């Protein structure tokens, strides 16, 4: 019978695997519904280890929204480690959900949330274990519809063979509308099978269906055209943009895992989107415009989440949380409310130009004074102009001096290596900055026990950004520059021991680049790597560059392209890019102009506070920046627990900056990204 638990078969195997508790379910606020009482059944997957996937906000939000619908069931699954995978294959146990241990293959819809491209091989493992044919073209009517989403699905072409549909952008309204269409189709007796369901979803603009588009290639390997095979679907599928975040205060009841996870806290997304214009940042580009939650909603969500979960730390999340128009008021009011309790507040890394001691003191008032994290990104001021990160060395030294003078003893600085136009000298300026940070800290604090950790990730050009045309630095260049930097830091006897240095080699970034900007021909590489044992490629202990390199040579060589062709090659303006037929709202001509500005080292202001500079998002998507201040306070506390999700078909109107009291949040059958232990590279 469909929907039967596999736990009786699974339980005897758990003592034989590492961390068995991650497979048993039963988390606080998890939901298990009777199978036969529901009409539409979703399985949601974060394709990484449970400890990484369980805190993911996107999956948690969609899980809760779907389960609020009386006739809808949503359960979760995560990637199983190779030790359990081997036992499952030996004993014939299918990929299962952690909620009720039901077979993934029994569900109507299988939603997979990608925060990183290095999770693609884990998708194939889950499909195979679930008994779902790897290729969408081979699936029958009894297989779930595989729906991909998340930031790493904005160029879904490399996995086009393996997914049935793709949701671009925010997922809250999209999953409810997909559910409505599926419910109606099933009520009619499922006419036309899965093909008809996919056609209905595509016609409404809810999903991009790769099978409904053909790709042709030029003799030199470049794409000639991507064209729809039907005239009754949108020729350019577009992203979903949620407006009025205050109407969507999720998650109301955060999941509380029994097993250890990478983030032991509850999180509230205080706004979605970013208009700072960092040219390397795909997340900032594809989530435009900015949509804030107002202070009252944030306070109510924190209150409800703490009551429902018992967590002692609250993370206020966004791409740049200190940029919230009421962040000072939010921080003070929350610190006042929870003073004397064991509840602490935290922010992700803070922009140098958004930091102030008052804000930092509020966030550390009820918790320990941990280190501060800043992200200059580029080593030299010239390079920071190229990437539009408008921070000077003087700004950084002034900021960290202030922090050290007020009692902080540790600062972490995040940079990237391999940025466009970068030279050895640009990278070596990171060492100069780190040395100045230590000296300034010792002077400001009067102490010598000052620490600065330099963390460096390899830059990977991404789709829908001004750098989508850039050639990626080879791993040899990246490794050479990192070695130069490491040796330079260590050679300084005065401050070298006070500077920590963390980095990864450049090879994983090259594979991430292949997957991020590849086309459908790369799918055969992914499959070959998977068949030869590729799993958990985002984890350094499992990643094998040699395996990927050999697969590229075997699969791409006969087609006249290569690993380098997809990564280190610079594209010209007229080249058809694999994702050009997918509409993120960003005008292609504007992106190209910004790429030219980058090479001229010209900076661009944040459009939240300046006139529009025509990136294209707001007129294309019918949206606008939704920002405060609202002038509200956190008292009285307004409950969010009883707030129902707005109707799936409702479309909130855009709010202009002058009267914005609403806001927005970001799951797209994925989102926001989680930090992954031993992550090979990040952008």
Name the descriptors:
alpha/beta; Transcription Regulator spoIIAA; five-stranded parallel β-sheet; four-stranded parallel β-sheet; 21 helices; globular; disordered C terminus; rSAM_horseshoe; catalytic activity; Radical_SAM_N2; iron-sulfur cluster binding; Radical SAM family uncharacterized protein
SSE map:
Layout: H1 7-10, E1 40-46, H2 50-53, H3 57-67, E2 72-78, H4 82-91, E3 109-113, H5 120-130, E4 145-149, E5 165-166, H6 172-187, H7 193-203, E6 213-217, E7 223-228, E8 266-269, E9 271-272, H8 282-286, E10 291-292, H9 295-309, E11 313-317, H10 327-337, E12 344-346, H11 357-364, E13 372-377, H12 381-386, H13 393-405, E14 410-417, H14 424-445, E15 451-458, H15 475-491, E16 499-503, H16 507-517, H17 523-531, H18 545-556, H19 563-567, H20 588-599, H21 617-621
Parallel strand pairs: 1-2, 1-3, 3-4, 4-5, 8-11, 11-12, 13-14, 14-15, 15-16
Antiparallel strand pairs: 6-7, 9-10
Helix pairs in contact: 5-17, 10-11, 13-14, 14-15, 17-18
Can you put this structure into words, describing what you see?
By secondary structure, this protein is of the alpha/beta class. Among the domains are: 6-167 and 171-228, no CATH class; 239-370 and 586-636, Transcription Regulator spoIIAA (2-Layer Sandwich). The protein has helices at residues 7-10, 50-53, 57-67, 82-91, 120-130, 172-187, 193-203, 282-286, 295-309, 327-337, 357-364, 381-386, 393-405, 424-445, 475-491, 507-517, 523-531, 545-556, 563-567, 588-599, 617-621, and strands spanning 40-46, 72-78, 109-113, 145-149, 165-166, 213-217, 223-228, 266-269, 271-272, 291-292, 313-317, 344-346, 372-377, 410-417, 451-458, 499-503. A 5-stranded parallel β-sheet has the order 2-1-3-4-5. The radius of gyration is 24 Å and the shape is globular. Mean pLDDT is 91; it is low at 648-666 and 668-683.
């Amino acid at each position: 019978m469909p929907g039967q638990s596999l736990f009786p078969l699974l339980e005897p195997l758990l003592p034989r695997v590492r961390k068995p508790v991650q497979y048993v379910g039963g988390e606080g606020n998890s939901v298990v519904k009777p199978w036969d009482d529901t009409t539409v059944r979703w399985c949601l997957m974060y394709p990484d280890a449970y400890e990484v996937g369980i805190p993911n906000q996107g999956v948690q939000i969609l899980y809760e929204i779907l389960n609020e619908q009386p006739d809808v069931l949503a359960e979760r699954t995560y990637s199983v480690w190779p030790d359990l995978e081997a036992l499952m294959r030996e004993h014939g146990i299918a990929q299962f959900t952690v909620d009720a241990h039901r077979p993934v293959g029994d569900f109507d819809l299988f939603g997979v949330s990608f925060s990183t491209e290095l999770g693609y091989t884990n998708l194939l493992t889950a499909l195979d274990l679930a008994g779902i044919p790897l290729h969408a073209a081979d699936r029958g009517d009894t297989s779930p519809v595989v729906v991909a989403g998340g930031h790493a699905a904005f160029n879904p072409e490399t996995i086009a063979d393996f997914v049935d549909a793709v949701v671009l952008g925010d997922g809250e309204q999209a999953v409810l509308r997909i559910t409505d269409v599926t419910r109606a189709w099933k009520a009619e007796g499922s006419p036309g099978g899965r093909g008809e369901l996919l056609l209905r979803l595509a016609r409404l603009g809810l999903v991009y269906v790769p099978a409904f588009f053909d790709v042709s290639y030029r003799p030199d390997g470049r794409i000639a055209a991507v064209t729809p095979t039907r005239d009754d679907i949108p020729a350019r599928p577009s992203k979903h943009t949620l407006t009025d975040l205050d109407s969507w205060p999720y998650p109301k009841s955060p999941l509380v895992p029994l097993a250890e996870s990478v983030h032991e806290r509850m999180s509230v997304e205080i706004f979605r989107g970013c208009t700072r214009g960092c040219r390397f940042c795909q997340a900032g580009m594809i989530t435009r415009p900015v949509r804030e939650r107002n202070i009252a909603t944030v306070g109510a969500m924190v209150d409800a989440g703490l009551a429902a979960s018992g967590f002692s730390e609250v993370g206020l999340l966004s791409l740049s949380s200190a940029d919230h128009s009421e962040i000072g008021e939010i921080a003070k009011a929350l610190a006042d409310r929870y003073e004397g309790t064991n509840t602490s507040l935290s922010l992700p890394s803070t922009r140098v130009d958004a930091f102030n001691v008052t804000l930092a003191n509020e966030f550390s008032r009820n918790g320990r004074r941990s280190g501060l994290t800043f992200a200059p990104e580029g080593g030299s001021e010239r390079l920071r102009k190229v990437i539009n990160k408008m921070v000077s060395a003087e700004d950084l030294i002034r900021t960290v001096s202030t922090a050290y003078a007020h009692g902080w003893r540790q600062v972490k600085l995040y940079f990237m290596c391999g940025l466009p136009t970068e030279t050895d000298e640009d990278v070596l300026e990171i060492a100069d900055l780190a040395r100045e940070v230590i000296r300034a800290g010792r002077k400001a604090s009067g102490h010598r026990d000052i620490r600065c950790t330099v963390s460096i990730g390899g830059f990977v050009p991404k789709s829908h950004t001004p750098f989508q045309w850039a050639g990626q630095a080879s791993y040899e260049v990246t490794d050479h520059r990192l070695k130069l930097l490491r040796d330079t830091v260590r050679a300084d006897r005065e401050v070298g021991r006070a500077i920590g240095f963390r980095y990864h080699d450049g090879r994983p970034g090259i594979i991430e680049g292949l997957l991020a900007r590849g086309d459908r021909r790369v799918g055969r590489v992914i499959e070959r790597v998977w068949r030869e044992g590729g799993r958990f490629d985002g984890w350094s202990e499992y990643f094998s560059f040699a395996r990927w390199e050999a697969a590229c040579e075997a699969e791409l060589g006969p087609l006249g392209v290569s690993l380098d062709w997809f990564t280190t090659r610079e594209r010209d303006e007229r080249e058809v890019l694999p994702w050009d037929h997918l509409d993120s709202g960003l005008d292609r001509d504007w992106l190209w102009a910004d790429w030219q500005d980058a090479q001229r080292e010209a900076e661009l202001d944040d459009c939240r506070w300046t006139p529009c500079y025509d990136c294209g998002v707001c007129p294309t998507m019918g949206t606008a920046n939704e920002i405060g201040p609202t002038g509200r306070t956190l008292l009285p506390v307004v409950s969010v627990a009883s707030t129902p999700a707005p109707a799936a078909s409702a479309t909130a109107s855009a709010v202009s900056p002058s009267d914005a009291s609403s806001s927005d949040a970001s799951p797209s059958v994925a989102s926001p990204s989680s930090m992954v232990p031993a992550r090979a590279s990040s952008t």
